Hints:
Blueprint: E1 10-11, E2 22-23, H1 29-38, H2 40-63, H3 67-95, H4 97-116, H5 121-136, H6 139-147, H7 154-157, H8 160-178, H9 184-193, H10 196-205, H11 213-218, H12 222-232, H13 236-249, H14 269-278, H15 282-300, H16 303-316, H17 322-338, H18 341-346, H19 352-377, H20 385-417, H21 423-452, H22 454-475, H23 484-491
Antiparallel strand pairs: 1-2
Main location: membrane
Subcellular location: Membrane
Keywords: Membrane, Sugar transport, Symport, Transmembrane, Transmembrane helix, Transport
Amino acid sequence: MEKAKESTSETTLSHPLLSSKVKELPKNKYAFASAMIASIASLLAGYNIGVMSGAQIFIKDDLKISDVQIEILAGSVHIYSLIGSLTAGWTSDCIGRRNTLLLTSIIYLLGPLITCASNNYFWLMVGRFVTGIAIGYMVVVRIYVAEVSPAATRGFLTALPEVAINAGLLLGYVSNFAFAYLPVRLSWRTMFALASVPSILLGFGTFSLPESPRWLVMKGQLGKAKEVLTQISSSQVEAEAQLIEIKEKARIPREDTEEFVSTQNCSQDKNIWRELIMTPTPVIGRIIITVLALQFLEQASGIDTVVLYSPRIFEKAGMRSTTDLLCATMIVGLIKTSLVFVPMFLSDRVGRRPLLLSSTAGMAVSLIMLGFGLQMVGHFLTAPTWIVAVCIMAVLSYVGFFSAGLGPVTMAYSSETIPLKLRAQGMGLAIAMNRVVCGVVAMTFISIYEVISISCTFYLYAVITGFAFVFVYFCLPETRGKSLEEIEVLFGKT
């Protein structure tokens, strides 16, 4: 095999067939296209979360509901997503990653349609309940993209779902602004109805996707797995080496090269949960604790308060015009979406840890600045321009630092560290933690700031973000350039 010069696009694979470094393509077009299609589900998740930011203004006026009901409506979708995140692993193991994506597209079509047809609070909650289940199913996107990504470009490709989520948030904010001038009864319904378009695209797009090669190996379809690996790898030799590594982790004899009837079935789900939670090995235990802690800290930093309540935060900072509030919120979405490209291009170059450390440090400083700005507002009858500017810049800085590290890298890191056998259920557990904390933050933000003040609320989030920095510094090993099978060994070394 021809040796290549060391570069950031190289990776060292542990198998003897690839003992030398193999220069991989900067990005495999087939893997990239597959990741893009699958990421439409993440775009839908972002849109259905972000659209509520502005839609709640018009829903409140139209249906005459209270702040508490708005708080529950905005945050409960994350709690409902538990159903999807905890069942997505089982579904993706039983019927495959690709078919689970198809199921997700159907649920995404139903949820927004029920929401936009609602005439009272009960049916609004039903629509958000169905949408929440679909949002929980985005766990399969993380699994699928990680499993079809070559090791050297996995950081780039596994960031695509996060880019899609942020693009969805931005589109939600744009629809808030675009349809704000329609009659109140029609405006928010149109915002939700638009979500049906990407769900249809996702449904048709799944038919062109390959199945995950790692799922195919687990099901004994070695021939198909080899075909997919050949398509997503930079060489035939690499594909064969990857197949051998996957077989070893799936406990399939190396000499077994023919199709066989897999002994793994959906009834083994209890054994997997036992290995994840009840009696994990020290290595698995460390991986799961690390992943869950990282997911907790990501959401406990308060990011969803800005995602869902930007208009309210800017109003507290002194802005009054509805148009100005929605325009400022749209800029938040633009910054959040733009900076998510930073980890896409840098995570495979500088590593996961540097991005996480710089991100959490920047977020903590931004939150302190936002808390200070909101605290100063209380000293004036009319907020001076400089205070409004400080608050706006703090919010933009906060979401920018989040998108440049903690947001996308957390999910990429989680999806690549959980071992193959446990990946589907493990990621379901990780997303469940993420959604629970996200839901609690979203459903308590208004209540908390009414008790301790909005400035102290953001100071609290700053302290939590500081803990996230400490956790990353002391507890997270670097995974850059490692194959999915090598990462399990990495966690066992320390």
